[in-house]
Write a structure and sequence with these properties.
Length: about 290
């Protein structure tokens, strides 16, 4: 038993529903504004750490479109592998089913939803405005089932000049490298090709990248977020003192290069919210004391 009263549990459930509704309302508002005005996402400001899969897809789509508008047609998107009902701040999924489970429950649905959101028509394309706003037809074709990999294709409503392809979970096996080379030639120099969560690190052309999703520094859960064209944004999760068993991301700083653990540690040491270690904060709250 949690020790909570029925009223406390009901309040917690209602608050979670309210927060979920607010997040969904924000997403729907952004989508409606784009449809009504025809404005690109390129004017959107960088967002904080996304709370869940839907918010992550919206933020990734914004970054991909900004990069494409700047002429970057070969991009890498690295998602935090969240299931539909998972929160970024929750327990990390250990994926006992391996790559197949990761692909089935996170990699494929995240990539397909991303391609449904992205509008990437080549600059010389002559496209009907109404058609360009319509969602594309998205399909996925497995590469190797045991590897949990696939090629995902978005056929744009406004014509082939807006088609997008993505390779989900490619690795350094010769087959994947050959497939990527062939797809790049097929797509051409003006259309978008995305690598979604490749199993290698040395990829420079980021559209969107969120690390791990979490790495640990000084015992704290941290996140590094890269959203084109902005610098890496560095966050650490801290317990929300106003709400039981909830964590919120605290912005620590930014970095031109991918942040290191030592950078996180230095920033954590400079912030009053993290003056105490996580264990000390938990002890202070258990004693009914202020954890700052």
């Amino acid at each position: 038993m949690s020790g909570k009263s029925v009223e406390e549990m009901e309040r917690e459930v209602q608050e979670e529903k309210r927060l979920a509704q607010e997040r969904q309302a924000t997403i729907e508002k952004a989508r409606k504004e784009r449809e009504e005005s025809g404005k690109s996402r390129s004017n959107m400001q960088i967002l904080p750490v996304p709370d869940d899969a839907k918010a992550q897809i919206q933020q990734a789509a914004s970054a991909v479109e900004r990069a494409f508008a700047d002429g970057i047609v070969r991009q890498t998107v690295r998602f935090a592998l969240l299931g539909e009902e998972e929160a970024m701040s929750g327990e990390q999924n250990e994926w006992p089913g391996g790559a197949q489970q990761m692909y089935r429950e996170a990699g494929r649905p995240l990539t397909e939803e991303l391609l449904r959101e992205v509008r990437a028509y080549s600059k010389d394309a002559s496209v009907d405005t109404e058609l360009s706003r319509m969602p594309p037809e998205v399909t996925s074709e497995d590469i190797w089932d045991f590897d949990g990999s696939a090629i995902t294709t978005a056929k744009a409503a406004g014509g082939s000049q807006g088609d997008v392809k993505a390779v989900v979970f490619p690795n350094t096996d010769t087959k994947y490298l050959n497939d990527i080379e062939a797809l790049s030639a097929e797509v051409g120099k003006d259309r978008l090709l995305i690598l979604a969560n490749p199993f290698w690190r040395n990829v420079e052309s980021w559209g969107f990248n969120i690390l791990a999703p979490r790495r640990s520094a000084r015992g704290e859960d941290c996140v590094a977020l890269k959203s084109y064209p902005y610098d890496w944004q560095m966050y650490a999760y801290r317990e929300d003192p106003s709400w039981y068993n909830q964590e919120v991301p605290i912005w620590l700083g930014s970095s031109e290069e991918e942040p290191t653990s030592s950078q996180f540690t230095e920033l954590l040491n400079s912030r009053p919210e993290f003056k105490m270690s996580k264990n000390m904060r938990q002890m202070q709250r258990a004693l009914g004391n202020d954890d700052m």
